[in-house]
Amino acid sequence: MAYLKLNTRALKHNYLFLKNLFGSHKKDWGVVTKLLCGNKLFLKEVIGLHPDCIFDSRLSNLAMVKKISLEIKTGYIKPPPTRSIEELIEVADISFNTQFETIEMINRYAEKAGKVHQIVIMIEMGDLREGVMRENFVDFYARVFELKAVEVMGIGANLNCLNGIMPSHDKLIQLSLYEQIIEAKFNKKIPWVSLGTSVTLPLLLKNLVPEGVNHFRIGETLFFGNDLFEDSPMEGMKQDVFMLYAEVLEVMEKPINPTGYVGSNVAGEIPIFEIEDYSETSIRILVDIGILDIEIKNIKPLYEEYRLEGGSSDMIVLDVGKNNHNIRVGDMIPFHINYMGALRLLNSKYIEKRLG
C-alpha cells in the first residue's frame, strides 16, 4: 500500500529555522495547516511544536485542532460562510473577513456565546481574490468599531494566490500605511499587519519587509523549505518533510514503444510517440498509486534516472532503464512531491499516513 511519510525531524528543523528568523526580525507568525486536511496524526506533530497560532481554511480542520488542544489559538483564513458562523465561534478564535454583513453575524453569535471574537479585515491589494476595496476601508472600519463582541486584531491582505501578483516592498509599505491611518483616525491599536505569507518570506531575508508589516502566515515554506519567489530550495531549510512511497506491483522488460491503434487514454489525452526502433526495450515497473491520488506532474522519483511514463486511475508506470537499483516486486519506491501533490495525497483516503 502506498503511504505518505512526514519526517518529524525535518519538520522540527524547518519550524525552528522560521522561529529564529521571525524572532530576529521581531515579527509574529503562525502556522497554516490547510495542507494537512485535518489529519490528526500530522496535526499533533505541528501542535507539539507550540506555534503561537494555527491557521486553516476549513472549519472541520480547526475543530480537529481544538480536539487535540483547547489551549492553542486558531484562525480561520478565508471569509466565513454565513451558514457556519455558530461553528466558527466554537472552533476559531480569529477569522479573516471582508463582508460587513458577515461580521455583524459574527458579533451577534459571539455575544450570544459570551465571547469576543477577534477579526482581521482583509484589504484588496491587487490580486483580486478577497478584500475590501481600498477606497472603502476607512468607512468599513468605522462600522466595525461600533460592534461590541468583535475585536479588530489586524489588517491583512492576500497576494499571489489567484492572479499571481507578487508581494513587493511598495505593497507592504502601502498596507502598513493603511494601518497607521486607522490607528490615527480612530485612536485604536491594530496589533497585526498581516501580509506575510510563504511567498513574502524571501523579502524578509533581503530586509525588504518594513517594520510596520509584523505578522506572517506560513504553510508551504514550513513543509517544503522552498523560496516561492525563485521557485528553488531555501538555504538552511529541509525539503524532505514529506516523501511518498509506492509499492512495486510489476517489474518486466518491455518494448519502449507501444503497438496498435492510438486513441485517447484514461485521462482523455492522445499520446504521441517518437518511434525509432520497435525492438528497443527497457525495464518498466508499475507502482500502486494512480492519477486518482496524485497528478503525475506533482511527483518526481527520488532516483533521477527513473522516468515517469504515465499513469491510469490506480497505477503509475516508470521506466527504470537497466534497473541498476535491482528493484523487485514488493519494494517501496520513494518520490519527492510538491505542495499540490501533498494536498491531493492528504485528502485521499486510499493513502496511508505515517511518521518517520
From TrEMBL:
**UniProt key word Acyltransferase:** no
Q: Name one GO cellular component term.
A: cytosol
Cofactor(s) for this UniProt protein: pyridoxal 5'-phosphate
Q: Print the keywords alphabetically.
A: Isomerase, Pyridoxal phosphate
Superkingdom of source: Bacteria
Which SUPFAM superfamilies does the UniProt entry name for this protein?
PLP-binding barrel
Where is the Alanine racemase N-terminal domain positioned along the sequence?
Answer: 7-226
* Gene3D superfamilies reported for this sequence: Alanine racemase
Show the GO MF annotations.
Answer: alanine racemase activity; pyridoxal phosphate binding
Q: Determine if Isomerase is one of this entry's keywords.
A: yes
InterPro entries, per this entry? Ala_racemase, Ala_racemase_N, PLP-binding_barrel
Report the protein name in the record.
Alanine/ornithine racemase family PLP-dependent enzyme
